[in-house]
Amino acid sequence: MSMLTTMKRLAAGAALFGAAAVATAAVGQQMQFFRIGTGGTAGTYFPIGGLLANAISSPPGSRSCADGGACGVEGLIATAVASNGSVGNINAIQGGSLESGFTQSDVAFWAYTGTGVYEGKPKVENLRVIANLYPETIHLVARKGANIKSVADLKGKRVSLDEPGSGTLVDAKLILAAYGLTEKDVEAEYLKPNQAGERMRDGGMDAFFFVGGYPAGAIAELASSSGIDLVPISGPEAEKILGEYKFFAKDTVPADTYKGVGQVETISVNAQWVTSASQPDELIYGITKALWNDNTRKLLDSGHAKGKAIKTDTALQGLGVPLHAGAEKFYKEAGLLK
Q: Which N-terminal residues, if any, form the signal peptide (predicted)?
């Protein structure tokens, strides 16, 4: 079964889970819904969001954790919502159409401070962090035979930079600039990785950017069916990016992560789970506690390759945005924060 098919089934299962929970809710018990904005279904945010939604949910009438039932927040039904990604999720949280969402650490920092991509826009001062999750690797995927060995080789090529509203688009522009290129130097398109991969498979796309945890489903399928090159983001240009933007870090995609691709040096940002300061402290405290219980640990370890990287050891790393008061309370009680 392909990873993409698995993720689609996960989404369907989440929908059925929610419907069943509503149908079986005990009369008079309070029920609360909590949406997690993720990304496209071919990326990493979506399956991780599905795992966390299941972990923090505990529908009315369900067995308690002590009795072998759900170990989430009592009365809570969480759902993972496909979206455009980081920028879109933050904007939706600010507008009230999402209770929480995943975002890249750089985009969160820019939104909170009104800098970078949010320059000239109102600061999202009510943005708060629940947890730092895992490193998001910047992939530059090239078509076999396109002769793209460096970012500089993208000049004049057909390149997808991802959709407007995505953190990938923001980072792709920064990377192009570090190599002396702009959007005008490439034949830019703005597609999600699964769409870009289909175009590449048909010979209509030379390269595309994707920021997310490896292995990414769309890239893995493309590597298996058509073969790909993964272009390194390294050297003095990468060092310049690392020096200017502290939220980037060196990263390595291990050999054979994708079929036929050796070890590749690149850079990464962090994926973070954010919410609004207006969300109740008690609710976010319960969600944070459910995130780090033993039941969730098992779900993360078995549910996705990147789930193993979501650990309390790194939950507070690279935060450029304040913690939500409810999350802060949990981390202090757990001895992770003074």
A: 1-25
Range of the domain at 227: 136-269
Residue 178 belongs to some domain of the structure: yes
The answer to whether the beta carbons of residues 104 and 86 sit under 8 Å apart is yes
**pTM (2 decimals)?**
0.78
> How far is the CA of 197 from the CAs of 3, 11, 317, in angstroms?
14, 21, 33
DSSP 173: H
Measured distance CA(229)–CA(16) in Å, rounded: 39
The domain boundary, picked from 230, 247, 269, lies at: 269
Are residues 57 and 76 located together in one domain of the fold?
yes
pLDDT digits (tens, 9 = 90+) for 234-265: 999 999 998 888 788 899 999 999 999 999 99
Closest CA to 289 of 73, 62, 41, 123: 73
pLDDT digits (tens, 9 = 90+) for 1-28: 444 444 444 444 444 444 444 444 433 4
Number of structural domains (the chain) is: 2
The answer to the question of residue 338 being in a domain is: no
